[in-house]
Amino acid sequence: MPGQIKYIIGNEACERFSFYGMRNILVPFLISSVLLQYLPEGSEREAMAKEVFHSFVIGVYFFPLLGGWLSDRFFGKYNTVLWFSLIYCAGHACLAMFEGNRTGFFTGLFLIALGSGGIKPLVVSFCGDQFDQTNKDKAKVVFDAFYWIINFGSFFASLFAPLLLRHFGPAVAFGVPGVLMFIATVIFWAGRRQYVNVPPSGADPDSFMAVVRTALGPRGRGDGKGGTAIAWTGIAVAALMLALWALQALGIAVPWPEAFGFVITACLALGVLIAAVGVGASLQLERARGLHPDAAVDGVRAVLRILIVFALVTPFWSLFDQKASTWIIQGNAMVIPHDQWWWPSWLVKDAAQMQALNPLLVMLLIPFNNLVLYPALRAMGFQVTALRRMGWGIAFSGVAWIVAGVLQLWIDGGAEVSLTWQALPYLLLTFGEVLVSATALEFAYSQAPHAMKGVIMAFWYLTSTFGSLWVLLTNAGVRNDGFRALIAQSGMSEPAFLMFFFAAFAFVAAAAFALYARRYPMQDNYRVAT
């Protein structure tokens, strides 16, 4: 076992406590803080807290594109992780010092999103770089420990950070995760003389983007099939979106929704850009053959197919990430059963602590699925393929939100609902997460050729970005008079209506996923044993 692994694992444990500690108290803090006191208490302030939270999540899962690019092209993994970790620490310091200053606090959120996102795609692969042919049998043990320590850190952060906020205030509650991030950085730095540092690869003439540019550009062989026109149309539409937002920000009347701020507009533009370039490249990909190796061209085609799968997974993340926003708000309206002998009142005092169920259940469900559920299903004749697991995972998330919606109707009816009932939707949602998240990485790894695996990881992180985009779009829609009238006609409260809306969103996505999965051409790109 490489001796330097202890530094990487120790870094990850502290960093994950740091990240989830601040993330899981962000919405409760914002609702009660002076930062949002310009809004009336109640639904408007809660909606803004959700908007800030999901904008932050969008940044966290967008910046891996930047971190991965800087590492691969210029600085290498060690330097990139270390420098982004220092940015990460500065962000935590801003949260602790500027709890009452909107500019300072939001600057801190931006720096944490930049730092956390920048190191996200690198730490796991840097860990893998420490192994070679002589000790590769130890790698699986380390990766299992790596995944376990992520959930270990998340569990304790989810359990204790709300208590710090409750008893010691936001400066301490945000400061402790900051101290943990500083310790994580020091631990990582301490192993600097022992690490194996793979140098940056630099520009790759046969990279994903190089092949796409050839397929769409004048260098490609043969005539195009309209793909170039589609790609340029998408680029123009994306640029127009950003221009309309900019004009509106300057106070000029333009036909662009006022509720669409920069984050929503930029994400929509990015989505249009990826879709148009992807469709255009898929139509003309053969134009790159002969100018790039066949393996590179086939790899791009495999990535484009996987992107459709990833796009259909984005609704899952719109449901999953709201456990740290919508479900906390719901939990605050529920009754904590301190009068029951079985409730751990000495420890669980806040609704936000229910989030600790997620990592705890992950650690229990993964071995249960692998050792009990999947073998039992195979024994009954069911083929437990990766795509089927992912489709069912999306559907289970929808069921979780139906249960949450029923609980909300119960609350709206005036009943005193025990917080214990939230354990059921948490169980269903976490079961869906294990089926979707853990399986998707296995699926993408098997489908993408070796040279494209880094690209696939970057696009995988973007699924969470677009998941939070759907939440922001829904929040923006709620401000529309027509949408509000539709909610009023339903006879439900706004929270209950939106819970059933997101459940329906998940079921539609699961159905579309199942239809696409039936005709997806499965590949096997695991490396040949040597």
TrEMBL record:
Primary localization: membrane
GO terms under cellular component: membrane
**InterPro entries found in the cross-reference section:** MFS_trans_sf, POT_fam, PTR2_symporter_CS
Q: Where in the cell is it found?
A: Membrane
Annotated membrane-spanning segments are 21-40, 52-69, 81-98, 104-124, 145-165, 171-191, 229-247, 259-281, 302-320, 356-377, 389-411, 423-445, 457-476, 496-517
The membrane topology term of the UniProt record is: Multi-pass membrane protein
Family membership:
Belongs to the major facilitator superfamily. Proton-dependent oligopeptide transporter (POT/PTR) (TC 2.A.17) family.
Q: Which GO terms describe its molecular function?
A: transmembrane transporter activity
* An individual GO BP term: oligopeptide transport
Query: Which protein is depicted?
Result: POT family MFS transporter
UniProt keyword Transmembrane, yes or no: yes
Does the keyword field hold Membrane?
yes
Query: Cross-referenced SUPFAM superfamilies, in alphabetical order?
Result: MFS general substrate transporter
Superkingdom, according to UniProt?
Answer: Bacteria
Its keywords, alphabetically, are: Membrane, Transmembrane, Transmembrane helix
